[in-house]
Known about the structure:
Layout (H helix, E strand, L loop, with lengths): L4 H15 L6 H9 L8 E2 L6 E3 L5 E4 L8 H18 L4 H5 L1
Antiparallel strand pairs: 1-2, 2-3
Amino acid sequence: MSIGSTHRAAINAFNAAxxxxxxxxxxxxxxxxLDQNVELxxxxxxxxxxVVLDRHGCDVFTVDVNNERPDDEVLAIALFIVESVNxxxxxxxxxxxx
Length: 98
C-alpha cells in the first residue's frame, strides 16, 4: 500500500514537529488526526475486541486483525494505544468520564 502525497505531507509535518526539541502541542496532535478525518478522543469498541473508534464511533484501526493473539492481549494493546494518543492530545481520564 502506498501513501498518497497528502498523507505523506501530513506525516512529514508531524515528524518535523516531533523532531523539534519543543514538546508537540495538544493542538498539533488533534489537528494531525483531524487532517485524517479522525476526531479525538479515541475509544475502544464495546462490541469488538481490539477495534478502536473515534469520537463519532467510526473505526480507526483494529489490533490483531488476523486473530493471532489472545483477546486479553489484544485488549491491552488497544488500550495502551488509545490512552497514549488521548493523553498526548490533552484528554484526561476525568475529561473522558465527564
